[in-house]
Amino acid sequence: MPAFSPRDLEYVRDLGLVAASGSVRMANPIYAEVIPRELTLTQGAVLESLVFPSWYVNNDGSLDVPKLMAAFQDHFRQHSEFWVQRYGHLEAGPHLVLHAYLHRVVNSGGRITREYAVGRRRTDLLIEWPQPGGTLQSNPRKYVIECKVLGESSGLESVIREGSQQTEEYMDLRGAESGHLVIFDMRPGKTWKERIFRRNPEPDQPAITVWGM
Question: Suppose 104 and one of 28, 47, 120, 170 were both cysteines; which one would form an S-S bond, judging by CB atoms 3.0 to 4.6 Å apart?
Answer without folding.
Answer: 47
